[in-house]
Write a structure and sequence with these properties.
mainly alpha
Length: about 190
């Protein structure tokens, strides 16, 4: 991000990446829910099982009686996916802040792979799932939302990058024009 150096630059890129990851996570969830509507399938319970396994391994008790505890686990499951999506976006932002400048295809592939590993990796390590046993439709149902995540994350992180001083092209110029028009309208 132009005009900012040192830790502030990295923090800005991390936050831009995290925001992009949040947008991507929203799309990933929407694609997953749309798949549930189209195919009439139920929600996956693997995030909740993962939370349960982590609770056991880390010896961290999830408080509450049976019903309250179950509801907490159902809330924690999706939060782990959100954390993975936002975190992956933040990591992409940090990589960009350090000077990594891949093309969109490489950045999208990296975001897709990172999101797949960030979500499926812990479930695989904890023996909640085994991707080696997945059917072709299981793989498609898992990859499509992650690709959608990556496409949106990359588009947003690229769009949040501020323009260099004097740059007049692309989205930056349109944002400046829009801001100028709003100022004129408000101040007239």
């Amino acid at each position: 991000m132009t005009g900012v150096s040192g830790p502030a630059r990295h923090l800005r890129w991390f936050l831009a990446g995290a925001a992009a990851g949040a947008a991507g996570t929203t799309v990933l969830d929407a694609v997953g829910y749309l798949d549930m509507v189209i195919r009439g399938r139920g929600a996956s319970t693997t995030p909740e099982v993962t939370v349960e396994r982590l609770s056991e391994i880390l010896h961290v008790r999830i408080p509450g009686d049976d019903n309250v505890r179950e509801n907490r686990v159902k809330g924690l499951g999706p939060l782990t996916g959100m954390a993975a999506g936002v975190g992956m976006g933040g990591l992409l932002g940090l990589a960009l802040s350090c000077g990594w400048r891949p093309g969109n295809a490489v950045l999208t592939a990296t975001a897709t792979a990172g999101a797949l590993i960030g979500t499926n990796g812990p479930m695989t390590v904890l023996h909640v799932t085994d991707p080696r046993t997945w059917s072709r439709s299981d793989w498609v149902a898992d990859i499509v939302p992650h690709v959608a995540y990556a496409l949106v994350t990359v588009a947003v992180v690229r769009g949040l990058k501020p323009c260099p001083p004097g740059h007049s092209g692309g989205i930056c110029a349109r944002v400046r024009e829009c801001a100028a028009a709003h100022r004129q309208t408000l101040c007239a």
